[in-house]
Amino acid sequence: MPTLILFNKPFQVLSQFTDDNSDKKTLAQYIQLPNVYAAGRLDYDSEGLLLLTDDGQLQHRIAHPKHKSAKTYWAQVEGIPSQQAIDSLCKGVTLKDGITLPAKVRSIDEPKLWDRTPPIRQRANIPTSWLEIQITEGRNRQVRRMTAAIGHPTLRLVRASVGEWQLAELKPGECKVLEVAAPPAAKNNKKPPYPAKHKFAKIRHPKQR
Fold this sequence. Notes:
This protein is of the alpha+beta class.
């Protein structure tokens, strides 16, 4: 059965195992399982759920835009968006690479998260607020560009879920390893290929042990 890893990617960690051009942290400093690869990406300056797998078909199923896996983000933005601004995000906003697909967006209370190091840069006398944004696209830095388009730049971005998989109780640098059923080969098979019965174990960064 394919292996699926749920990883809470810390701030300023690349979503890849190697980096020959800088001294940035990579996945290799957190994940020791061999032959696994990221299913999709999460920006260097974003945090939260990143999925990895050793199965190419499953990787494609999760990451390819045509499968429209819903991704949910918690975005701390500058200022307090009006309902009109939130509605515009829901309907789709115009970016340089076209209009975004409809999204699910709502204001939320500040989620219970770990402290970020370094903390966000917050301008004096300007409040911040949190949005929950669910999209099915995967454009580069899409959520950040969406909030900027309505005049509320994103200061912190945490991915809470991808499809049915959630960040849940994972702390930064922690993983959960699952065994899942392989996606069906037939394109028109509507039965969900996962989750299957699974076992899991947490993998912590060596310094956390």
